[in-house]
Write a structure and sequence with these properties.
single chain; alpha+beta; Ribosomal Protein S5, domain 2; 4-stranded antiparallel sheet
Amino acid sequence: MATEDEQSSLRPMYCELNVLTRSDGSALLTQGETAIIASVHGPIEVKLQHMNVEKAHVDIHFRTRSGLGSVNDRLLENLIRNTYETTILTALHPRTAISVQIQEMQDLGGLVACAINAVCLALVNSGLEMKYLVAAVHSVLGENDKITLDPDELQSKDARAKFTFVFESVGRKTVSIYTHGKFTSDQYHRALRMSTAAVGKIFDFYQEIVAKQSKVL
């Protein structure tokens, strides 16, 4: 259970689907003041070096707001690729590629979680088959052993450790975990418990967005 000094609520979320006309699915997602646009193309023709006769190749491209790439950006791409290679039913589309483009619009805390969630909504919008939906929750460990869930940029500034847990929608089990910094086992499990308790709100948000889109169609 979170202490009185811990923040256990999520920042407000907003999403708009079909924001890009030349993609098979797209989503603009904001969590607090962090904003991501994700788009999906595929199944499309795959490059020869990535061709697999048993499944589709999942390609992830992340672009920062400045347009300048870094080692951390490649780590983010790998994290998202590992998450969605196990989520998308790639065996249904052998010898093809599924390309995901992620554009950072603004980063004011929780960029990784926002990107993962935006991709999930873009995939839902594209109609690609998935085993389950996924949702990511970000938290940080601050001074005085305080865990802050879904922190903004100011709350993240002096964090001793950062946690991003990615959950699947069926059993609410973790499918990916990204951590940075120093923390104890107790602090890790406290962050995990808080994230597990909060992720249902994100899945509920997904349902609301899809329901609204269905009414529009």
